[in-house]
Every structure is written in C-alpha cells, then in structure tokens.
Amino acid sequence: xxxxxxxxxxxxxxxxxxxxxxxxxxxxxxxxxxxxxxxxxxxxxxxxxxxxxxxxxxxxxxxxxxxxxxxxxxxxxxxxxxxxxxxxxxxxxxxxxxxxxxxxxxxxxxxxxxxxxxxxxxxxxxxxxxxxxxxxxxxxxxxxxxxxxxxxxxxxxxxxxxxxxxxxxxxxxxxxxxxxxxxxxxxxxxxxxxxxxxxxxxxxxxxxxxxxxxxxxxxxxxxxxxxxxxxxxxxxxxxxxxxxxxxxxxxxxxxxxxxxxxxxxxxxxxxxxxxxxxxxxxxxxxxxxxxxxxxxxxxxxxxxxxxxxxxxxxxxxxxxxxxxxxxxxxxxxxxxxxxxxxxxxxxxxxxxxxxxxxxxxxxxxxxxxxxxxxxxxxxxxxxxxxxxxxxxxxxxxxxxxxxxxxxxxxxxxxxxxxxxxxxxxxxxxxxxxxxxxxxxxxxxxxxxxxxxxxxxxxxxxxxxxxxxxxxxxxxxxxxxxxxxxxxxxxxxxxxxxxxxxxxxxxxxxxxxxxxxxxxxxxxxxxxxxxxxxxxxxxxxxxxxxxxxxxxxxxxxxxxxxxxxxxxxxxxxxxxxxxxxxxxxxxxxxxxxxxxxxxxxxxxxxxxxxxxxxxxxxxxxxxxxxxxxxxxxxxxxxxxxxxxxxxxxxxxxxxxxxxxxxxxxxxxxxx
Length: 670
What we know:
By secondary structure, this protein is α+β, with helices and mostly antiparallel strands. It is built from 15 helices and 21 strands.
C-alpha cells in the first residue's frame, strides 16, 4: 500500500465500532458513580457528622469519577462531530482552530461561526463537557420496723421534717424546682439531653376567685364537704380603699403541733392510754385566703397619695381562696445543658385532702390541746388508719410549707406607696415583684398554684424521701441504695451493685423508663433535590452529546470512527493542497513567539485565519474548482477506483480545492 492510501486509511478509521462502545461504557460508568454518590450520601443522612473531612473526600472522589466518566463519553462523541463538521462544511481556519480546541478551552466556543453553520451541533458535546465541571465541583458536600408497739400506742403527726423544710425553702429561693445533683447525667447519660413524662398523685391547690374590683363583696366558698365558709376579710382592706397591697390568711384550722399539754420529748404523752378520741386527728386542711391589689395600668404613672387624682381607679383589688386537693399530675421533665425544667401538662383534682369545713370560733373541748373544730367530724383522719393517715400527713406538710411562705401582709405605710412594709415570707418568692414596689405579680392565683407545684417537684430532687418512687416501678422506693446508670447509645446497661452484689442487667432493665434523648451535634443532612438537579442536567446533556456522536458514526460516516490524535491531524494536513498558503511573514521569517524563542507559541496572521478550508477529497493535480459536485453512480464508482489508484487523497484543503462527500442510502452526493 502506498503512502497516500495509508493516509486515507489512517484518517478514515477502522469502522469496527470499538470507540462507540467505549463511549457508552464511559457514560454508564459516570451514571453509576452518580448513583453511588447518591447512595453514599443517603447512608450518611441523619447520622452524627463524624469524620467529616474523610466523608467529604469520599463524596468528592465519587463526584469527580462521575464527572470524568461523563466527560470522556462526551469528548469521544465530540471527536466524531468534529470530523462530521469539517467533512460537510468549509469553515475559516479560525473556526477550525476553535472547533479542535473546544474540549480544552471554553473560550473557543465563543466563535460565532461554529453556531452559524449547519454543523453547529458539533459544539454542543464540548459545551456540555465544559459546563459539567462547574456543578460537579460545586455540589460536593452531613434515666421503726421492729416489734409491734404496745396496745393503745400509735404514731401521730407533729410537723414537717427538717429535710423537707430545707428542700422547700431552697425551691422557693431558687424560684424553680430543685434539681438533684448530676440529675442529667444519671437520667439521660453523659452528653445527652432528654425529655420524659411522668404521672403521679400529689396534692395541688385549687384556687377560686371570690371577688374582684373596688367595692366588690366576696362570695362564700362552697366546699365539697357540703359546707360554706365566708372569707375572713373583704376587699376594703386592700388598695385603693385600704392600705394593703397583699393580705394572706392561711392559718385558720391549722393542725396544732401540741396535741396534749403534758408531753415529753418528741411529743410523747406523759400519761398512759387511753387518750382522747381526736388525739392526733387531722381534722381539716386550712384554706388559703389571699387578697391583693394590682396596678390597673402599669404604663401610666401610679398616684403616690390617696389625695392624688386617679387614686381610686389606679388599683384593682381581688380576693381568692385555695383548697388543698389530692390530685393527679402529668408532668414533663426536660434536661437540657445541665438545666432542669418542668411543666405540668395535665392536672386533675380528685378529692380534698381532708374533706371537712372549718368552723371558726367554735371550741373543740375534746380533751386535746388542738382547739380546731370542723364538720363533719366523721371525715376526720385518725392515726389508727395508718396508711391513709400518713399519706394525708405528708400532703398536709407540703401544704404547710406553702402556707408558711404565703401567710402575712404587705402594707403601704400611711397609705403611701414609697415605703411598703412587709410582714410575710412571700417577698422571698416569685409571687412578689420587687421591681414594682413589692406589689404582687398579676395572675397571683395561678402563680400560687405553680409555686406549690414547684415545691412538690423539688421533692423529686431527693430520692431519699419515702414518697419518691421509681417511675417504672411505682411500688418501689427510689432511695433504697440501688443505683442504675443510664444507657448510652449502642451500649449495654450498666448497673452499680450494692454490697450484696445481687443486681444484674435483668434487674436494671425493669427500672428503665421511656424518654426522648437528644443532644446538640452536627448531623449529616442530605439534600437530595440539589444533588440530583446537578446530576440530572449533566447526565441528560452528556447523553445528548453521546447520541450526537453515535449519529455521526452510524448515520453520517457509515460506521467509521475517527479521532483527533496528533498523527491523524498530521495525516489530514500533509500534501500540496495547503502549500499555497503563506504561513510565514513577508520577509520570509517564521511567525514565532513574541520573545523570539522558537519554542514559543506560533501566531498565525489574521488574514490567514480568514481563509476558508474543509476536509474531503483532493486531486493530485488541479483542484476540483467547486466544493459540491453531483456525480452519477457510475461516476462515483470511477472516482473510487481513481482514489485507489492514487489520483485523489483525503485531506484538508482550501475552498475550491476540496471535494466534500456525504454517504446517503442509495446514492453518493459530492
């Protein structure tokens, strides 16, 4: 085979379709990497952001692998479009420069001649490849027992225990429920926040408004026992008519800590049994009576003297009464950042702690030192009813501490607001606002109920209290010396064994209680939509480029595959067809780099770049004279024979010297 026929074979390609198969393999590879990228991010979604840099690298590798696969598929397809275009159209040398450089230089696509010609689809695959690089890099992204007492002896209530008095006092000063030390770690686990809901039975104060407004008369309080009791005072003692901004009477019917006159240490009677019938009996639970005045309009200046205009309308007196009820609580506990918060989500009043009505000014005269009389006497709770008596005594102690803080007055001396005189422990609580001249806060009845709830919640801060039990096992006390450590994520239960060493995992699991655990942490978040917007655009555009390449091979080129290797370009440009172009300067020197170095970039003159050239058949002698010639089938056959004999060769030539052909079904058009 002579040199010309070798050049022809080199340029035309083999036609075996191998590169077309490789083109689709690269496209499938890029698509598979995109699916892998999605699956990898989906596996991280919602998990703690551990090893962020490593995961980012994995995602980057998948993204660039997808980009590489789709890009190579487009480049292979583009090579075929390049040859299709130059075989069909005669273009300026500048346009040919842009066409062959498009896969490496995005600026090359700005040559308008590429888009003006009917061969413009040749630029599309390259444009797809250049645009794909931007989004692929941009979107890579994550809880005294002993012998029975002698006959006729019994225990009876005396007063709240010092431990509880201390707990209630701390809660009042803190203005919130007392939290157990290390409660969050023991309940939630180290580093975790948690929320849980518990329900239990405890006392609660049920408050009823009896009067509101200047000159209003309080109605009687009707009790569940069937009795009715009048308020011990009315609103006339409150501002603006009276001199008190706060007046609380909480001791009516209070249990006497001295039940007998002659007693020894600890209240033990000196005399022998039998004792009076009502000795130690819980006869009634004192009603809390509170009257208070609020400033009608805090935004306006408050009159400082009764003689000032607007004094009579500057204050709103109110009066309410609260009764101690046994109630059912539903409470939500939250531990966040070592802080505890509680919220009573549901409160149901069940029954009065002692269902009687206090009868003031009536002496008991029953042989005891307790001069309280209430009706009906059949509802008294006696020490001999041990379980009921002890529960009621505990409720009474809780109420006693509330009443201790509430009882007393705040008086405006000489009816002037400049020097309030407090005779109550209420100023140590959140019920009184020191910033507002020690006036009670608005909505005092609700605040009293909430204050009582916080005292009760404070008990839960000390599991040693007898009344505190396990949430999961209400029949077992929590302060028995057995401690169960909280679960950590994916860890087995740990238990702290007592001296007997009998605790085990099964024992600990019985005390587990449902809770919602959380912690502040960086989490992986996979935005599926954003990633697939990028990949969908890239994959579709890449697919379009591959389809154009396949069309160039199968439909336009008869299955011939070409490339843009250096040897192919050299083979297509050798020969006398381009010798007529003056590639050197007018003085005969070559156009080399501006620095005079032969290794510099060659600059072709602008007038040369305007010459129009194309790829096709060239005659070894004179040119064809026209780039489009119609031949009959016999003439085409003769031409093929001439090509084989060496009369014509394939290559680049100037317009008028090159004959461009297209293969159509049933005919050949030149």
